[in-house]
Amino acid sequence: METIKTIDISLDTSNPKEKLTSAEMGKLWATYMGNSMSKCILSYYLQHVEDADIKHLLENALKLSNEFMKTTKEIFIKENFPIPHGFTEKDVNLGAPRLFEDEFYVHYLKYAAKAGMSIYNVAVPLVYRKDIREFYLYCMDATMALMEQIKDILMNKGFIIKPPFIPIPDKVEFAHQNFLNGFLGHVRPLHALEIAHLYDNIENNVTSKALIMAFAQVAKDEKIRELFEKGRELTAINVEHYMQKLHDEHLPSPSFVDHLVTTSAFAPFSDKLMLFHKMDMFAMKIRAFGNSAAVNGRQDIGLLYSKSFLKISGFVKDAAELMIENGWMEQPPAAADREKLASG
After folding, report:
1. What is the CATH number of the domain that holds 64?
2. Which residues pair with 92 in a beta bridge?
3. Strand ranges (DSSP E) for the chain?
């Protein structure tokens, strides 16, 4: 497996007085926060990995996280932008016992790479400053290269099955009146896009379930542990519903990966990091539901995503409240508070 090569991103702009837009500030802030967390997690994973291929994969991922953090920090310094606190060595215990088996690291990296690509992909059309645009194009290219290595290992080591195969159509067909049916009358088979997004949601959620199960196992704060247990049950129910939709069509689905969590009760991460991470992962599920609903046609699938959306949104709200209660939630850059300025 090749080492992903880094490149130098020039931070000189065509106009030295060109200010950062809100989109550029927001995406740079999210990039720094996410990668400061990833640096802690990947550094811990590397303490216990035994498989040489997976170790190299983790090293590539950590190298990218360090590079993305370094570039965003340089931009912040150049613009006199306060560097986010994010996560530091205080949020990880590298001496903690193994909490995950090697295989889990590959599933986790795929989930994390998807999350990173969602930030970078949205950033590209929204950023206009030349240096920042080039930075996000590079982030996308580098993360896509990492994703290809992740998929190769998943398939070569037999860790996952491909999305289901379906017959090639005999001809072009147009939708009939029953196309949207999901409960009454004739219910058509799932189409390819519905299958793809059910598969994607299952793949995301089996990783999320194993991770939150591990976090519930090691969390110190009782409120946070209880929220993790609630999130684990919620995720399990959602996954089973998505799997059932595929199984009803005699289609396979990814399997649970809970067995890749060890019995260790010693926390490798701070409660702050774990809570932030699960809040972020559940927020990513909301984005995934939006993508899934956009291509869905069947009413039963649409209702399933709507119910999942409401429950996941509730978890994110509860997690955010706990973050605020503990004084852990950093605010993204915001618009001026005109009412406060006027009253002052």
Report:
1. 1.20.1260.10
2. 269
3. none
Cα 334-328-338 angle, rounded to 5 deg: 20
List C-alpha distances in Å: 26 to 4, 29, 76, 127, 161: 27, 5, 12, 10, 36
Tokens 């209660």 appear where?
325
Residue 330's Cβ-count burial label (10 Å; 0-12, 13-18, 19+) is: exposed
Tell me: the pLDDT tens digits for 235-278? 999 999 999 999 999 999 999 999 999 999 999 999 999 999 99
Is there a single domain that holds both residue 296 and residue 198? yes
Q: Do 274 and 151 belong to one domain?
A: no
Which of the 8 DSSP states describes residue 221? S
Q: How far, in Å, CA of 126 to CA of 24, rounded? A: 8
In this structure, which amino acid lies at residue 214? A
CB 259 within 8 A of CB 209: no
Instruction: Give the chain's domain count.
Output: 2
What token pair was written down for 321? 């409240």
Q: Are residues 195 and 305 in the same domain?
A: yes
Looking up tokens 């993204």, which residue turns up?
A: 332
Indicate whether 293 and 213 sit together in one domain: yes
Q: In DSSP terms, which residues pair with 100 in a beta bridge?
A: 261
CB 30 within 8 A of CB 94: no
The 10s digit of each residue's pLDDT in 116-165 is 999 999 999 999 999 999 999 999 999 999 999 999 999 999 999 999 99
pTM over 0.90: yes
Q: What residues contact residue 53 under an 8 Å CB cut-off, 6+ apart?
A: 1, 153, 157
Domain range for 207: 186-325
Task: Give the other-Cβ count within 10 Å of 193's Cβ.
Answer: 14
Cα dihedral value 297, 119, 103, 93, nearest 10: -140
- Note whether 9 and 136 are within 8 A (CB): no
Cβ contact 265:218 at 8 Å: yes
**Whole-number Å distance between alpha carbons of 315 and 323:** 12
